[in-house]
Each structure stands twice: as structure tokens, then as C-alpha cells.
Design brief:
Layout: H1 15-27, E1 32-35, H2 40-47, E2 55-59, E3 63-72, H3 77-96, E4 102-111, H4 134-142, H5 148-152
Parallel strand pairs: 3-4
Antiparallel strand pairs: 1-3, 2-3
């Protein structure tokens, strides 16, 4: 092993890489329906400079993240935002070995995505006595399968 002093260096991470980490952490959180403005219209507006990016990263002395989300309708918005903040902080702390100074979450809207219709109830195996015609009910009663005649016996 050579005995030379360690070379000090510097590593840099691009804003784009940090934004991808934030995107993955946010979209992987329960209750997040997407990023606000992350649809074709929003992308077109950003391309011509009329809309802000859904993820804004400030890297310097401080590491700050601004995030614009769409939350699933019917969930507690504050709880989803807390969960996203925690996920973003954890992801960046693990990846960059640096604490995040500020995470600001803006809720850009709610998205209602109704689930599938509930399954239809299965019909009963046999006919109910009230479903039978009067002559069938009388025949059923004479065989001792319920009805007024079998109750008397």
C-alpha cells in the first residue's frame, strides 16, 4: 500500500437526478394520484414557460424541495402530505447523505378515480317460496317443503 495522503475531492449531483429521486418517493406514497400539471397540457405549458415544474429543487448551502401534487379524493390531505414529506426526506437522506432543510408540498388538486363496481350478489341456490307461482306454492306445501300446509302439521 502506498503511503500517500488521501486526495480530497468533490462529488456533485444534478438537480435532475435529485428531482427523479423526489418523483419516485412522492409517487410511491399512498394517496398520491400524480404530480400537479404532469399531463400533456401541463407539459406543453411548461415547455413554453407558462407553468411551473411540479418539482423544484434548490441546492446550495441549503437543500430545499418544492413539490406540487395531486392527491386521491377521499383521503386526508394533511396525512398524505406528511407521508410524502417523510418519504422525500428519507430518500434524499439515504441517497445524498445530506439532510433536507425544507420540503414544501403544494396540493394542486384532488383526483377522483372511482374503483370497479362491487360484484353482484350471487342469487340464492333454490327459489324462495315467495318467488313461486300460487300453484307451485301449493304443490311445494303438499310435499312438506314449507308454506302454510306444512306449518300446520
Amino acid at each position: 500500500m502506498p503511503d500517500h495522503p488521501p486526495v480530497l475531492g468533490r462529488s456533485s449531483v444534478s438537480r435532475r437526478a435529485v428531482a427523479q429521486l423526489v418523483r419516485g418517493a412522492a409517487l410511491g406514497s399512498y394517496g398520491v394520484a400524480g404530480l400537479a400539471g404532469d399531463d400533456p397540457v401541463g407539459r406543453a405549458l411548461r415547455a413554453i414557460g407558462l407553468a411551473a415544474d411540479p418539482i423544484d429543487i434548490h441546492i446550495g448551502e441549503r437543500l430545499e424541495v418544492d413539490l406540487r401534487l395531486t392527491i386521491a379524493y377521499g383521503l386526508p390531505v394533511a396525512e398524505v402530505a406528511r407521508q410524502v414529506e417523510s418519504a422525500v426526506r428519507y430518500t434524499l437522506r439515504r441517497a445524498l447523505e445530506r439532510e433536507v432543510d425544507r420540503v414544501t408540498i403544494h396540493v394542486g388538486g384532488l383526483r377522483y378515480d372511482p374503483g370497479a363496481e362491487p360484484p353482484a350478489t350471487t342469487p340464492p341456490v333454490g327459489p324462495e317460496p315467495t318467488d313461486l307461482q300460487p300453484e307451485e306454492r301449493a304443490a311445494d306445501a303438499s310435499r312438506g317443503h314449507g308454506g302454510p300446509a306444512s306449518d300446520a302439521a
